[in-house]
Amino acid sequence: MLNSVAFSCNESNKRKCCSLRISQLKLTYLYHSLVWFIKMENFKLLLVFLFLSSCHTSLSITDGLLPNGDFEHGPKPSQLKGSQVVGYDAIPNWIVSGFVEYIKSGQKQGDMLLVVPEGAYAVRLGNEASIKQKVKFSKGSFYSITFSAGRTCAQEEKLNVSVVPTIGNGDWGVIPIQTMYGSNGWESFACGFKADFSEGEIVIHNTGLEEDPACGPLIDSVALKLLNPPKRTTANLLKNGNFEEGPYVFPNASWGVLIPPHIEDSHSPLPGWIVESLKAVKYIDSNHFSVAEGQRAIELVAGKESALAQVVITTIGKTYDLTFTVGDANNACEGSMIVEAFAGRDTVQVPYQSKGKGGFTRGKLRFKAVSSRTRVRFLSTFYTMKNDNSGSLCGPVIDDVKLLSVRYPGFHA
Q1: Which segments constitute the DUF642 domain (predicted)?
Q2: CA 330/CA 290 separation, integer angstroms
Q3: What is the C-alpha separation between 298 and 291, in angstroms, rounded?
Q4: Are 313 and 376 in contact (CB under 8 A)?
């Protein structure tokens, strides 16, 4: 408080006394105003902090890495026994179970170099080991999970990716990672699911049993994306014909995202489409590859074992035109390529001579519908490898797929 001023007022000093009292009152008023202002500002800051805190805890991830999804924040030194993680909650934002290792880029196991896909750290899942994280969802919505994985000392490594709880047993998939399409030692994979509840856990589990419990896949960069189910339009009877809606693609990853066959994925991370083959297809982006239209496309990387399909509603007896582009991804994939397109009882082969530097040609299939539901299907006739001596599988790129009914089929465009 301000100190009071003792002053005796009389006729001779009345004016001076009043002036001092007025000044004292002004100072007192200014002091209390300042205190009130500081208290109000602190209160406002407190409200802002509480609001931001509540937002942080209630927001769900819709497009990007999970919290500490790249594992760059690791255990404390006291929570590590060599590289083995000690403590179920030692890795921030994750719960671990079983033999889990925290791997640093450049770390060796004997003569083998353990490669980390991105950043400086990753985790390795040993026998029956798993990692999981609790996430908030929009109930009833569709999501895709993208993660990077690399094989280490085991040959037939598999990962079980699931979301729990779920209604039924459809939202899980076993993804084999023994087939590596690139030469980097790792791949990015995507799987899809429907959120049956507003909150759940994303679980990645190594189902393998090896003599060495430390043998297992490396996991890095786990991301989530909310999928917007595409619809058919008057301009295209196919859903997501330009492949723009799909799994999350890591901005710094130049190797694309593998979408497994539908037999290992109950909900496709590529809305509208089914990977109905034994091998995966690759989802690529225009930041790292040549794409004919838009920002996304599909590379058929495993010959006839890599097929993409969609079932569309058609009118029996009506004529339709299926148009699409065939090209290469500008990834040193050279040679003669052929994409086969099927619709109903009709088929067409579209050849493309690739120089491995980008480019495309257009294909077209005119057909008459023989049923009310027609399966449109694409595959690559040949296996192709890059010309960089890496042994990496590659293939033709399809994009801008459209299906329209033909009003006057007697006139050929």
Answers
A1: 64-225, 236-403
A2: 5
A3: 9
A4: no
What's the chain's average pLDDT? Answer: 84
As a whole number of angstroms, the distance between CA 363 and CA 157 comes to 38
Contact 227, 269 (CB under 8 A): yes
Q: Is the pLDDT of residue 229 over 80?
A: yes
- For residue 84, the tally of other CB atoms under 10 A from its CB is 17
Residue % of the chain over a pLDDT of 90: 60
Alpha-carbon span 308 to 380, nearest angstrom: 10
CB atoms within 10 A of CB 3: 6
Q: What is the 8-class DSSP label of residue 79?
A: G
Q: Which residues pair with 84 in a beta bridge?
A: 81, 101
Residue 46 has pLDDT above 60, yes or no: no
Buried b (16+ CB within 10 A) or exposed e, 12-40: eeeeeeeeeeeeeeeeeeeeeeeeeeeee
In the numeric block, which tokens belong to residue 36?
């009130």
Q: Can you give the pTM of this predicted structure?
A: 0.82
- 324 with 363: CB under 8 angstroms? yes
Q: Is 404 exposed, middle or buried (0-12, 13-18, 19+ CB in 10 A)?
A: middle
At residue 268, does pLDDT exceed 50? yes
Largest CA distance in the chain: 117
Tell me how far apart the alpha carbons of residues 116 and 94 are, in angstroms, rounded to a whole number: 18
Higher pLDDT, 42 or 245: 245
The tens digit of pLDDT for each residue in 101-159 reads 999 988 887 777 888 888 899 999 998 999 999 999 999 999 999 999 987 776 677 89
pLDDT for the residue 211: 76
Instruction: Say if CB 320 and CB 365 are below 8 A apart.
Output: no
CB atoms within 10 A of CB 371: 11
CA distance 74 to 76: 7
Is the separation of the CB atoms in 91 and 67 below 8 Å? no
Residue type, 323: T
pLDDT of 265 reads 61
Nearest CA-CA partner of 187 in 159, 148, 144: 148
Range name among 7-11, 32-36, 112-116 with the lowest pLDDT average: 7-11
Once rounded to an integer, what is the mean pLDDT over residues 307-314? 95
